[in-house]
Q: What sequence folds into this?
């Protein structure tokens, strides 16, 4: 993967690289992963130039971002959060019956 310019990929291609990393490694990529695992991501610089910050790119890819301390940040509109709330509500409802 030639990463000489941040204009090589479309926004959607960059986001798909993040999603592919997640599918392959079963975890959200970190900016450091762009240096270590080059076949599955563009450079972190590319993501920062295109999306403002690394975490913005992660969020736009539909993944759960991490803050600087490494703790997960649950996104208000993420599918994961909605599913988690649904399962919590269903479990609570089923236990009452």
A:
């Amino acid at each position: 993967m030639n990463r000489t310019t941040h204009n090589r990929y479309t926004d959607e291609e960059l986001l798909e690289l993040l999603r592919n990393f997640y599918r392959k490694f079963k975890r959200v990529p970190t900016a450091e992963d762009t240096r270590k695992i080059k076949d599955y991501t563009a450079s972190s610089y590319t993501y920062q130039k295109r999306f403002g910050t690394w975490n913005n790119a992660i969020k736009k890819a539909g993944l759960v971002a991490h803050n600087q301390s490494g703790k997960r940040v649950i996104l208000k509109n993420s599918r994961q959060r909605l599913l988690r709330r649904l399962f919590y509500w269903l479990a609570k409802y089923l236990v009452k019956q």
Summary: Residues 1-5 have pLDDT under 50 and may be disordered.
